[in-house]
UniProtKB/TrEMBL annotation:
Single GO term (MF): Rab geranylgeranyltransferase activity
Keywords attached to this entry: Metal-binding, Prenyltransferase, Repeat, Transferase, Zinc
Keyword Protease belongs to the record: no
Domain of life per record: Eukaryota
Cofactor(s) required for function per UniProt: Zn(2+)
Organism listed in the record: Salpingoeca rosetta (strain ATCC 50818 / BSB-021)
Lineage of the organism: Eukaryota, Choanoflagellata, Craspedida, Salpingoecidae, Salpingoeca
Entry similarity comment: Belongs to the protein prenyltransferase subunit beta family.
Top EC group: transferase
Protein name as catalogued: Geranylgeranyl transferase type-2 subunit beta
EC annotation from Swiss-Prot or TrEMBL: 2.5.1.60
InterPro entries the record matches: PGGT1B-like, Prenyltrans, Ptb1, Terpenoid_cyclase/PrenylTrfase
Cofactor note: Binds 1 zinc ion per subunit.
UniProt keyword ATP-binding, yes or no: no
Amino acid sequence: MERKDVDLPADAPKAFLRQQHIDYIEQWNKRKGEFEYVMSEYLRMSGLYWCVTALELLDSRDKLDTAAVLKFIDECFDDASGGFSASQGHDPHLLYTLSAVQILCIYDAMQQKYVDGACKFIAALQREDGSFQGDEWGEVDTRFSFCALAALSLLGKLDAINVDAAVQHVLRCLNFDGGFGVGTESESHAGQIYCCVGVLTIANRLYSIDQTKLGLWLSQRQLERSGGFNGRPEKLPDVCYSWWVLSSIQMLQCQDWIDADRLKAFILACQDDESGGFADRPGDMVDPFHTLFGIAALSMLGESDIDRVNCVYCMPHRVIQRLGLA
Ligand code: GRG
């Protein structure tokens, strides 16, 4: 049976458009009054992390005002809980606490109050069964387990939580097909797999799963016509899965099980050669989310114009080395 897929347009970009992407991200952060920018306020801190990381990987930190970024992060820090919010006046959440910690690590601008706050905030969100809720309202998701372990390991403070219980929860979310979902008995999904494999990697517990079975499921995400990855069976390819799938494959060390050249051709075809930036699929609208994950995946594929990305943290590898984590 033919799988859902797309064809790459004959005139789609075939080379990496480095300067256009730098310009696109620089412009995006100047569009403060525009509809799209305003509508993404609820995830601004992560949006900033996507932009900062993409620019770092392109060696272009100067395109963002570092002082303004650090001021924004400080304004999103909640003294009472110790967490960070998406934007000023919003509630703190694990998703944005990880993004803030990542940016602070990239800029080497950590402060003791942030370390103490983040430890307190994250520890308070671990539940008895080892899982994590994202905020005080109680939603539980394997994404939040990753946010907790990634942020604390970047801070050198994994001892603030019960790591073994966190691992046990992730292992309870393992499915018969070798993958992981949002929680127990949830469909395997490449984004959640990245999070769970990330948790197991940070906790040094990858040996607890069948890595061959999972590597096979991940390699089956590559589609025949386009060469791109989907996030689960019977879905269309999307450039962000180039990151979620390939980084997981790297952590499992089975890179040879996919066709890297065809994946690269798909990712390059998702670039917009007029505006810069990447879209989910060729010809669609670009955005900072797909732009970071397109660039980061190309870095893993060895694109020479991009700095090396770390496959666990999605940050420049040199930063992870500076922190003594690689
Ligand atoms: C530091 C890189 C990094 C991440 C932090 C938030 C997080 C941890 C990870 C998110 C992982 C995830 C769930 C990614 C998937 C995002 C996405 C494109 C979801 C869309 O899912 P569906 O099911 O789309 O709507 P499909 O592709 O299945 O049609």
